Hints:
The chain has helices at 41-49, 97-103, 112-120, 136-148, 166-182, 194-200, 218-221, 262-267, and strands at residues 2-12, 15-25, 30-34, 56-61, 64-68, 73-74, 82-85, 154-158, 186-190, 203-208, 211-216, 228-239, 245-251, 254-260, 273-278, 284-287. It is of the alpha+beta class. Helix 4 packs parallel to helix 5 (166-182).
Amino acid sequence: MMQIKLYHSLWSAAGRMVLDLDMEIHPGELLAVYGPSGSGKTTLLRMLAGLARPERGYIRFGEEVWLDTAKRTIIPTKRRKVGLVFQEYALFPNMTVRKNLEYALDRGQSKSDVEELMHIMELEELAGRYPAKLSGGQQQRVALARALVRRPHLLLLDEPLSALDTEMRIRLQEYILQVHNTYSLTTVLVSHDVHEVIRLADRVILLEEGKIQEVGGAAQVLSLPGWVRLEGMVSRIVPGIGAGFAAVVVVGSAEFRIGLSAEMAQNLKEGDMVQVALQPSGQPVLLRE
Length: 289
């Protein structure tokens, strides 16, 4: 369990704002932090990483105390076992893909860890290329792999896919889920993208003006501006209300239980790909093309 209590004064476009957070992050979960620009999302990630210091508060990761201002305890970034990925790729332009990853290895760490990540992230054919010869999506895959080289316990993602087109975003979302599950990471994702949050997050924190407004599942927390369409897979068909049926549909790491008509229940089977439409209220409806 990660326990976080932070207080810090910030200046935003609207003037002075106080970041005042009291929250927990569960082991192994993918937590999304969602909210308008200037609400303190990036500052939160920087404090978790040790790149910024609050006026007061504490950060506890399991049995480790990373920060406790009352006791003047401050564990530096390099000792926090944190991987951090920003919007900017920040790759070394004079190093190949392989060298960028190897540079991130701890002293004495085996280069086999780099080979494993290159395989998972499908970077093997790009190993000898320099960043200037890579597409944006390829560079972001390298940046994500580099953040994982030291086997972090906590992965922090600050809108890492915002500059990519829709098709590439969806593909990289799959990579994020894959590495999150493969390495049993605890992951915190900052995103403005409703589709991305619903697809990836186990829980969502809604942050506004430095304060947590709501915490819960994505469909319940987000005030959706309109209908949102997502693709998912039918996990199983189960009894519904009365004599009816319901489909359990998996979308990324989210699971929706959706009522079915008798005709839809007859024509659906496990493994079918379907379209899920989320109403502004967050209520899911099944669409089948």
